[in-house]
Amino acid sequence: MPLPNTLHSLRRELADLGLCPGMTVMVHSSLRNIGWTVGGPVTVIRSLLEVLGTEGTLVMPAESPSVSDPSTWHDPRVKAEWHDTIRANLPVFDPRTTPTTMGALPEAFRTFPQTLRSNHPTVSVCANGRQAQEITKDHAMSFCEGKGTPFEKLYKLDGQTLLLGVGFNRCTSLHYAESLVPSRRTTVSRFPIMRDGTRVWVERPDMGTDDGVHFPLVGGQFAETGATRTGKIGNADAILFSTQELVDFAEAYFARVLG
Questions:
Q1: Which of 109, 107, 132 lies closest to 24 in space, CA to CA?
Q2: Other residues' Cβ atoms within 10 Å of the Cβ of residue 225
Q3: Which end of the chain is more exposed for a tag (fewer CB within 10 A), N or C?
Q4: Residues 87-124: tens digit of each pLDDT
Q5: What is each CA distance from 206 to 32, 55, 147, in whole angstroms?
């Protein structure tokens, strides 16, 4: 029977995969797939930060889709007749207290010492390390995964992406790549904000969801080019690659297939 994951074993596996001091890395993760870990999600976060060192930066998504119009939640527990009450009382986003629904690791990382969070109601990003302030300081309200967002900064900073127990369907940089083409798929997001001391609902254009249509396909084609490094972190399949290389590849893909 295998032993549980520890800080030491995770650090060793991350280094073997290719993480090294000074990197800026966006991590998409599943703690369940990593497996039982001594110390839980905090140990996984510590292992990542220790491998990256003081010159590196760890980044994770901190999305909060519940700060949006309830008609878009697809939550069977929420009755349609509740929507007006929810709209009238839904708290606005607070980067200090609004939880993320991205999983146990991102939620633990959100409250980790020195972690900063970008100020977007539904698609915020958390970062910890040398580039954290630069990555989180601005986040465009419209096309929140496109230009003027942390995802553009990760591209420009030549960051890496680590898929830790998840697939390319969870890779937000593919939304950024698609946002760069004129034929991008779009939607409208609606959420409450504070404006001049008054809580108001606003609408902003945004990237449409993929629902597994293109992201796994383009990710698989990218992996076939040999541009990824793969390995095991705990029990999880892990994929490490250049964000720039993925975005450039995916932008060409979306320009071709979306016309």
A1: 132
A2: 10
A3: N
A4: 999 999 999 999 999 999 999 999 999 999 999 999 99
A5: 30, 33, 11
Q: Provide φ and ψ at 228, rounded to 5°.
A: -115, 155
Q: Is residue 1 part of a domain?
A: no
Q: Which two tokens stand for residue 66?
A: 């519940």
Phi/psi for 170 (5° steps) reads: -100, 5
**DSSP secondary structure string for all residues of 157-179:** TT-EEEEES--GGG-THHHHHHH
Q: Which two tokens stand for residue 72?
A: 């878009």
112 vs 131: CA distance, rounded Å: 16
How do strand 186-195 and strand 198-207 relate by DSSP bridges? antiparallel
Report the distance separating Cα 243 and Cα 177, nearest Å: 10
Contact 88, 82 (CB under 8 A): no
CA distance 47 to 119: 27
| pTM, entire model | 0.96
Q: Are strands 57-61 and 24-29 parallel, antiparallel or unpaired?
A: parallel
* Residue 204 belongs to domain spanning: 7-257
Calpha distance 187→160 (Å, rounded) = 28
Identify whether 2 is part of a domain: no
> In total, how many domains does the chain have?
1
